[in-house]
Amino acid sequence: MHGPPLPPWARENRTGRFSGPPVPGTFRGRRDPGIGAAIGALLFQLIGANKQADDGYVVVTLGPAVWALLIVGPVALLFRRRYPVTAFAVTSAASMGFATMAEPHWFWAVAPMLALFHLGTTGRRTAAWVSAGVAYGTYLLIFWVFAGPIGLDQRVLPGLREILLIGIAMVVAIFLGGIAKIKGEQMAQMVKVRAERERAEQEQQRRQASEERLRIARELHDVIGHHLSLINVQAGVGLHLMDSRPEQAREALSAIKTASSEALREVRSVLGALRTEDEAAPRQPALGLSRLDSLTADAGLPVETKVTGDERVLPAEVDRAAYRIVQEALTNVRRHAGPGATASVGVDYLPTALHLAIRNDTVSSAALVADGGGTPGTGIAGMRARAQSLGGTLEAGPVDGGFLVSVLLPTGANE
Where is this region: Disordered (predicted)? Predict the structure, then answer.
């Protein structure tokens, strides 16, 4: 089950990496320059100043210059993502400028605190602490050290409580900005991990689909190759005996009918794996060594079968692969060994493996070609790939005037 769709910034870029979400405090990846915070600070300062003026706490008339001081700080917040230190300096200067004209109140510190918080989210801790220290020192110089020389009204001078609260507020703003940065980075990492996990799941699904297509292609190759080869042989026999021995030609046609029906049934069985919805239970037994007798009986040539070891139920994929390998090997014998060829199939149940040996008593140049002596064929290559997909091995080649296919398939411990 997959989570909700990924946001645009989590998509894979040209380098094949996921960029992750924009870290809080960075201008890149954010379309808005902080308009919401700027508007909020502006409303706080304008409404607060107006209320203070109505209550008589502003020592000057609210003229254009005073309103400009109240507006310039929130406007500077619009640029805090691109110029965080400058934005904090401008908001602090504007707020301290208005503080020289009104009794101490928290509203005029909204814009500077927002700018300082953002400076903390950028990860520039030194710049944040230095900026806060300079601003705090300037505030103390103006309102404590030089308040008399510059002629500040006594009503605007802060007490010890206000001085301490301003300092604590600055420390808290920087601290919360750092926490926000850490949280943002953690969220970015979580999203990146989720995106990579989704990509891995999709890659696994594509790989599984590719393996399934390859498996179906092998199944179809084995089914069609085996039965069409048998049909071709029987058709040749029927044509050859049509005039001289019509009764044997009839047997050949009957064998063709049986082989074609079996081929159609097996093709439908293979393709049925593609239709899993509302699929009825299979009515035919699964392909495996339990059907080895019928396979050798319909091979189109004499086949001797020998089974050794303690027979047991094999894993389904091993059982099916063993059946297909024997089928393909007998098909190769019928195609390449020439007329009058015979074959033998040996099945040996080992404690942790299954050994197959398919051998015929004659070998032709075509058989050598099929194993790589000339233009490569697909028969032995397909059998070898099928065995290797299960962790097994396959060896094939001429031996003692014949041709041997030897296969070892792991089956797990014999319990």
Answer: 1-30
Answer whether 18's CB lies under 8 Å from 192's CB: yes
376-380: Cβ within 8 A, 24+ apart: 378/221, 379/225, 379/328, 379/331, 379/332, 380/332, 380/405
Contact (CB, 8 A) for 118 and 83: no
The length of the chain is 415
Instruction: Work out whether strand 343-349 and strand 353-360 pair parallel, antiparallel, or are unpaired.
Output: antiparallel
Residue at a domain's end among 141, 158, 175: 158
Whether 102 contacts 108, CB under 8 Å: yes
Span 324-377, pLDDT tens digits: 899 888 888 877 766 678 899 999 999 899 999 999 876 554 443 344 443 344
User: Whole-model pTM?
Assistant: 0.43
> Which residue segment(s) compose the domain that 152 sits in?
23-158
Q: Which residues contact 125 (CB under 8 A, 6 or more apart)?
A: 174, 178
Say what the pLDDT of residue 120 is.
Answer: 85
Q: Which residues pair with 346 in a beta bridge?
A: 306, 357
Which tokens hold the place of 409?
A: 């398939």
Tokens of 39: 């508007």
Of 158, 188, 219, the one marking the end of a domain is: 158
Largest CA distance in the chain: 135
Q: How many helices (H) and strands (E) does the chain have?
A: 11, 5
What distances in angstroms separate CA 207 from CA 202, 248, 315, 332, one per listed residue?
A: 9, 50, 22, 30
216 within domain boundaries: no
Please name the residue that has the structure tokens 């048998």: 230
Q: How far apart are CA 46 and CA 69, in angstroms?
A: 10
